[in-house]
Amino acid sequence: MIKKLFALCCCILFLLKSQAQEVDTNIMGMHFIMDEVVVKSTKNGWDINGFIRRMKEDTTFYKAFLGLRVVPYTSDNEIIFWDENSKTIAQLENRTEQSIQGHCRTVKVLHEKVEGTYYDKLHRPRYYTAELLQHLFFRARTNECGTTDNIPSSHAGQGKMEKHKEQLKQLVFNPGSKVEGIPFVGKKASVFEDKGIQQRYDFALKLVQYNGEECYFFQAIPKEEFKEEVVYHQLDTWFRTSDYAIVARDYALSYHTLLYDFDVVMKVRLEKLGKRLLPSSIDYSGNWHVFTKKRERAKFKVLFDY
Questions:
Q1: Of 14, 63, 186, 306, which sits 20 to 30 A from 277 (CA to CA)?
Q2: Residue 212 belongs to some domain of the structure
Q3: 70-109 burial by CB neighbour count: b if 16+ within 10 A, else e?
């Protein structure tokens, strides 16, 4: 009996301590749950409003992917497609190398292994996911010149397919911002730009250790009553405290309409190369369908070496 009472007391103390370590507050119109360490930091003069403003306006994550256009690297890539019965129907493994000369870049495939229906007779990817992956990371063009890591201000002058690729890139690589041109999504993706969308989320901020570095761990958590209405169902980001650089991001997004639906989960890890922030690895698992096209189920992993 005494042991049971002791155990019960310990549980109560643990719960009270856990509750004491988290504080609910509203900052810049966002409902935050913060741990005790972050709360103490704000009391000691840390500018949490500045941090949140910087986080909401962040473009460094998107720019990290655009930076792949202007630096030399090698990448190991694997992509797998499967059918409704979970049977693999196509697979590709390759290693690519990008070289930079002046303002021109060249990507060549060092070796490649293909199985199933990955390519058509003209050696073009049969799947849109594969086409997008090739467009982003390992398309083999010679002397593609004039590329920059500037964030595009508009898609004017681009063909329909190129516009669609840029819209998808922004949705995936610039999470939380409004994406123009994707039907029915629009501002629903703008977690950081639209107050109405912000009110559908709770936000959490904690001080944690990640890979041996001190980081602010930020989460956008959909409120239960809005889970079926939001685009981002998970958005976790680790900001290094020393320079606020993003070192990791995990996110899941999904949306369903009569014209299309998608369910995508991504895990991205980044690293500093000089003054640049660049991807070190990307894990993707996705299931999507567009009206008039076949459903695609795929996963891929890309590892970068600079």
A1: 186
A2: yes
A3: ebebebebebbbbeeeeeebbbbebbbebeeeeeebbbee
In total, the chain counts a number of residues equal to 306
Q: What angle do CA 262, 264, 268 make, to 5 degrees?
A: 155
Is the residue at 166 inside a domain? yes
- Cα dist. 4→1, 12, 18 in Å? 5, 12, 21
Looking at 44-98, list the stretches that DSSP marks H as alpha helix, in order from N- to C-terminal side.
48-56, 60-66
Residue 35, burial from CB neighbour count under 10 angstroms (0-12, 13-18, 19+):
middle
**pLDDT, tens digit, for every residue of 144-165?**
888 888 877 665 556 666 666 6
Indicate the SS3 state at residue 184: coil
pLDDT, tens digit, 9 for 90 and up, residues 61-90: 888 988 998 999 999 999 999 999 999 999
Q: Taking Cα atoms as reference points, which of 127, 125, 99, 129 lies closest to residue 112? A: 125
Q: Residue 258 carries which DSSP code?
A: S
Number of domains in the chain: 1
Spatial CA neighbour of 190 closest among 4, 56, 5, 15 = 56
In a domain? residue 219: yes
Q: Could you tell me if residue 5 is inside a domain?
A: no
pTM for the model stands at 0.83
User: At 90, phi and psi to the nearest 5?
Assistant: -160, 145
Q: What is the largest CA-CA distance in the chain?
A: 79
Q: Which residue blocks in 125-190 are alpha helix, DSSP H? A: 128-133, 160-173
The residue with tokens 């609910």 is: 24
The residues, any chain, with a CB within 8 Å of residue 193's CB and separated by 6 or more, are 56, 176, 177, 178, 187
Contact 266, 282 (CB under 8 A): yes
**Domain extent for 192:** 56-150+157-305
CA angle 130, 133, 137 (to 5 degrees): 145
| Contact call for residues 252 and 219 (beta carbons, < 8 A) | no
